Amino acid sequence: MVRPRNFSAGPAQMPEDVLLSAQAEFMDFAGTGMSVLETSHRSAAYRRVIDAAEASLREVMGIPDSYGVLFLQGGATLEFAGIPMNLMRRGRAGHIVSGHFAKVAAEEAARYGSAEILATSEPTGFDRIPDLPAPEAFAGMDYGYICQNNTIYGTMFHGLPDCGGTPLVADVSSCFLSFPLDVTDYGLLFAGAQKNAGPSGVCVLVVDRSLVEAGPALGVCPTYLDYSAQLAKGSMLNTPNTFGIYLCGKVFDWVRGTGGLEAMGERNAEKAALLYGAVDRSDLYRGCAVPSSRSVANVTFRLPTPELEREFVDRAAGQGLVGLAGHRLVGGIRASIYNAVGIDAVRDLVAFMESFELSVT
Ligand code: PMP
C-alpha cells in the first residue's frame, strides 16, 4: 500500500517503523500474550515501558537529573493552566505573544495571576516573532513564557529571550525533537505529543525540579496537575495514557536510531530550505511569515485567492499529498514537515507546487 504524503499539523505523520513495530507486537506485547492496551500500568512489563521511554528521551535531549520528565494527559492545553498553578508564587508571569496558542496560554494564565504581555506580534497578524524584551522586563516575574514554534502562523524563535535569571517556560509542541536544544536554558518545556513525539493524549513536560519541589504555587491546583506529586509518582498518580506513552517511547528510540537531534535538525533544515526555496522562486505562492521568523516545522504560504487555495489543496490530495489546508483561523496553505515527513515527500510537494503553478498561470 502506498501511504499518502501527510503534511498534517497534528495528529501528524508517524515514523513508519514505529507503526510497524507497534503492529507487530499489538496482540502479544513483551511475550505476555496480551496487548499493551490490556496491560496494567502497575505491571512490571509496563513499568519497563515507561522507564525506557523516559530514559530514551533523556538520552535524546540530554536531560540532566536535576530535571524531571512527566507524561501527562490533557494535551498541551491543560498545561496552560498547570503552569501558572505550579509556578506563580509571586503571581506574575511575563508572556511573549507570538501566535494563537501563546495568546490562549496568556489568557489562561491570567485566570490565576497577572499574565503581563511583554511583547506581541498580533498587530502584524502574527507574521513574525516580536522583538524580544530586555532581560530587565522579566524582573520580579515568576517566569517568562514563549511558544517557541507557532504552528498556525509558521513562525519560530531563532533565539531564546534572555530572561535575566527568571526561568523560561516554553511551549515546544510543534518543534519538539526538531533540533538540538539545551534543556538547562529552560525552567520548563512542554509539548503535546501529536506532532513529533507520538499520538495525541500525551503531553511531555520537562521541568527543573527546583521550581516545583515545594509543591504547587496555588492551593487550587488540582492534584492531577501538581507537578511535584506527579514527579513523586512517576507520572502514575492515576492511570496514565499507557498506549500513548508506549508509542512515544518508540518514537524516541526512532529519533535516537536515526542519528539523534543533531541529524534531525540537519534534515529538517534541508527540508525547510527546499520548501521555502519553492515559495520564494514562485510568482504564485507568497510566504506568510517574515523570512527571519520562519518555522522549520510549519511552512505557511498563500495563493492569490481562496478559490485557488482550495483547488491547490484538492488537486494535491488527488496526488496523495494530504493535510495541506491552513488552520481554520487563517486559511491559506500549511505544510507541516515534522520529523517523520521525509525529504522525498517534500520533493514531491515541491514538484506538485511547480506543476500546479504552470497549470494555472
Ligand atoms: N501549543 C501549540 C504550539 C500547538 O500547536 C497546539 C495544538 N496544535 C497546542 C499548544 C494545543 O495542543 P493540544 O491540542 O495538545 O492541547
TrEMBL record:
Coiled-coil annotated residue ranges, if any: none
Main subcellular location of this protein, as a coarse class: cytoplasm
GO cellular component: cytoplasm
Binding site for pyridoxal 5'-phosphate: A76, T77, F101, T151, D171, Q194, N238, T239
Pathway the protein contributes to: Amino-acid biosynthesis; L-serine biosynthesis; L-serine from 3-phospho-D-glycerate: step 2/3; Cofactor biosynthesis; pyridoxine 5'-phosphate biosynthesis; pyridoxine 5'-phosphate from D-erythrose 4-phosphate: step 3/5
Binding site residues for L-glutamate: R42
Ranges where the Aminotransferase class V domain occurs: 6-345
A single GO molecular function term of this UniProt record: pyridoxal phosphate binding
Highest taxon listed in the record's lineage: Bacteria
Modified residues (N6-(pyridoxal phosphate)lysine): K195
Stated role: Catalyzes the reversible conversion of 3-phosphohydroxypyruvate to phosphoserine and of 3-hydroxy-2-oxo-4-phosphonooxybutanoate to phosphohydroxythreonine.
Protein name: Phosphoserine aminotransferase
Organism ancestry: Bacteria, Bacillati, Actinomycetota, Coriobacteriia, Coriobacteriales
